[in-house]
Design goal:
Layout (H helix, E strand, L loop, with lengths): L1 H29 L3 H27 L6 H21 L5 H28 L11 H34 L1
Helix pairs in contact: 1-2, 1-3, 1-4, 3-4, 4-5
């Protein structure tokens, strides 16, 4: 049934949002610079808001958040955090780079979600009245901000590595 596929798809993205929110929470907790903290907190707030929209859409479509998929998102975050800690035990620029890259990829996935839902919205009453264009623009803005931070982190991580080899 098409509704089952739609609910599965939305729940997969809901699980991804949990991963993002938890990664951001860890980044906020480990960031001391005020401007960087504010950036991360704002991003986390926006992702929570996007997650709320998705939860409402799942409900409107007759579903509920998937406990199994949510647990998968939780587990994915724990594995990501372990991988990041192994790569950069000092919680330095490489960890920041890799975390921001995970977030950037997730945000691109979310933008794809909004585009996909917007294409079927005219035929799916549960999706009616949602401004997917605005959600897509917010995702694009989030991606641009995260990408700028990712590039800064790459410069810090790789230039430091080059300096250490000299």
């Amino acid at each position: 049934m098409a509704t089952d596929a739609l609910l599965t798809y939305m729940n997969d993205h809901l699980a991804g949002s949990r991963t993002a929110i938890e990664l951001l929470e860890q980044m906020v907790d480990s960031t001391t610079e005020t401007e960087a903290r504010e950036f991360l907190e704002r991003l986390q707030t926006e992702i929570v808001q996007d997650r709320d929209v998705l939860e409402k859409l799942i409900s409107r479509a007759g579903g509920t958040p998937s406990v199994v998929r949510d647990a998968g998102g939780w587990i994915a975050e724990k594995f990501a955090r372990l991988k990041l800690a192994i790569d950069d035990p000092s919680d330095g620029p490489l960890r920041r780079l890799e975390t921001l890259e995970i977030l950037a990829l997730g945000i691109q996935g979310k933008a794809s979600l909004w585009r996909a839902l917007s294409t079927v919205a005219p035929a799916v009453p549960a999706l009616a009245g949602v401004n997917f264009a605005d959600l897509g623009q917010r995702a694009a803005a989030q991606y641009a901000r995260v990408e700028a931070g990712r590039i800064e982190a790459a410069q810090a991580a790789f230039m430091r590595a080059v300096g250490e080899r000299k």
